[in-house]
Amino acid sequence: MKKILIVEDDEIVTNIYRNKFTVEGYKVESAADGEAGLDKVRSFHPDAVLVDLMLPKITGIELIKKIRTEPNSQELPIIVFSNTYLSSLVQDAWKAGATKCLSKANCTPKQIIEVLRGAMNGNGKPGGSSPQTPSAAPPSGPAPNQNSSDAEFQANLRKSFTESLPATLAALRVVLQNIIKTPDEAARMKQLLELYRRIRSITTNAGMTGLSWIAQMSDALEALVKELSDKPKTINASTLRTVASAIDFLGVLFEHSKSHPSLSSSAPKILVVDDEAISRRALIYAIKKAKLDCVSVEDPSAAYDLLVNNAYDLVFLDVDMPGMNGFELCTKLRGLPAHKSTPVVFVTNLTDFESRANSTMSGGNDLIAKPFLFMELAVKALVYILRARLNPART
User: Fold this and answer.
1) Which fold has domain 150-259?
2) How many beta carbons lie within 10 A of that of residue 264, not counting itself?
3) CA–CA separation, 332 vs 164, rounded Å?
4) CATH topology for 3-145?
């Protein structure tokens, strides 16, 4: 009987995978932190290891490195769960000796089984050059369940997840309020890590249950909260508003998923207007991190011409621009029939009360302060683009 070790600190996720793998005919053990995981490798002698990169005590990266120094573990298949947006962490996992890296937001238990079978059958070598995506592989262990059994398993998972999600989102809002209200930095960091842990659980569970849009949104939010916890000085009113809006939108996506399992898949169109080349490149980079494309211009008059002749799903505007400032451009675009309700987000270093009032009066929907975190803007973009997809008639 093939043996699988799960190293994951989320008990719910661990139990789901343990039950699934056991049903599939594998012997399974688990560890809730990196140190315990290393001990299990030495005592359990698994045929494959499933590792989350974000673990207590020692990280998934350090665990992989230590496993690779163990006798007879140089070729042990190590399958890594990662965040889609933390590309540097994924590259570190490959360098440490991961066999395959899988996105939590896009992976179901059935796909994990396929990848594990392939890895234990010798398909995939440690330390590959680029991340792999789940794909079918020749079976080397027990025969897979019938499709009907997989569908029933996923349906039960989805039912449990959707029943618990409202309470989970309510808990997220409480933790966020504690972060906002807590003056003590140490207590605040503890709350921030708790927020991160809860969002990470949503990402994994949404991915397992096939709720891809919730998983995509939570995946990006998880990366933003991780960055805030790593760089506490970046926590400000702007980043906290972005986190709050994303949590609220997870609730909107959840309600939508009850009656509409999928969203419009049309390619979104985003316009970026900023006269500063460096700022414009930063905006483009952040939008691409959200796996979105955009059109960018430096001249507000040229931007207006584009708006006259094209429909856009989202517009990012600088404020301080020559010839026509962002407030004036926003007022003009609101006069165009195609852009009466197009979301407009101002990205500016003008964050005083008067600027906020002007952004609202000119028809803007939101404001992000410069300098911004790339993931903050990526999360903001996803919120507005996915919100537009809730109403396919607009796209």
Assistant:
1) Four Helix Bundle (Hemerythrin (Met), subunit A) (1.20.120)
2) 15
3) 45
4) Rossmann fold (3.40.50)
